[in-house]
Amino acid sequence: MKVLMVHAHPEPHSFCAALKNQAVATLTAQGHEVCVSDLYAMQFNPVATAGDFLQRENPEYLNYALEQRSAFAAGKLCAEIQTEINKVIDAELLIFSFPIYWMSMPAIMKGWIDRVFVSGLFYGGKRIYAKGGMQGKQALVCATLGGRDYMFGDKGIHGSLHGPTGMLRSLLQGSLGYVGMEVFEPFIGYHVPYITAEARVQLLSDWQQALLELDKRPVMQMPLLSDYDDTFRAR
Ligand SMILES: Cc1cc2nc3c(=O)[nH]c(=O)nc-3n(C[C@H](O)[C@H](O)[C@H](O)COP(=O)(O)O)c2cc1C
Q: Best mutation site among 20, 145, 158 for ligand 1, i.e. most ligand atoms within 8 A of its Cβ?
């Protein structure tokens, strides 16, 4: 299987990076082909601007999504974006590893999605969820955070992290599910800065086991297009 790891942590010796390295080692040992986009190491530019297009459909007014659509079709996206798109097209499984920043992903990863998940290829019109441009691919999120596990969930002070109203839902459903990928339940490392070395070793081992048993990992429920037939027809 071809795997793309999109990794976003500014410190190469962080625990988050150790999880990334663990994934590369585990998957490679299993015979999978792993490509890593280490966004901080690459100094990936996360800011979507007019400079992303080598040629513009409308030079007077920037409608970013429309320009994405025509530039992709014409092969006029800047090289940094086109390179990442090629990696995504090539991959069967995408793994996103990052520390939770403000209940979300770091800005550099959000910007990677903004610029790389281009309209026209990844989604467009009614090509979303089960009909999204990336159907057939799978996605797995591996995130670390500072809070304790009991702080999340229906009764936790922060509310749900990845449930239907969860704060990671914008990534899991709004981006990865939206473009048609099958999204696994995320792997979360809670309380990472404060746990013992033994607990860290256990977490690395749990992550390795999760990767070895990916075929048994539950996938997240995404909206069924058939439930929204009327909404779709009305527009
Ligand atoms: C800007 C910033 C925002 C953060 N926001 C959260 C947060 O919303 N919830 C949380 O539990 N931890 C939060 N943290 C803590 C990090 O997620 C945590 O330190 C990191 O995942 C630990 O992994 P590492 O040792 O690999 O860096 C935040 C840290 C930073 C620097």
A: 145
Distances from the Cα of 183 to the Cα of 16, 96, 141, 151, 204, angstroms: 20, 11, 8, 24, 21
Q: Which of 221, 104, 127 is nearest to 179 (CA)?
A: 127
CA of 145 to the centre of ligand 1 (A): 5
How does pLDDT run across 121-134, given as a tens digit for each residue? 999 988 999 999 99
Mutating to test ligand 1, I would choose from 19, 40, 100 the residue with most ligand atoms within 8 A of its C-beta, which is: 100
Structural domains of the chain in order of their starting residue, each with its CATH number: 2-234 (3.40.50.360)
Predicted TM-score (pTM) of this structure: 0.96
8 lines ligand 1 (CB under 6 A): no
Q: How far is the CA of 216 from the centre of ligand 1 (A)?
A: 29
In this predicted model, what pLDDT tens digit does every residue of 78-122 receive, in sequence order? 999 999 999 999 999 999 999 999 999 999 999 999 999 999 999
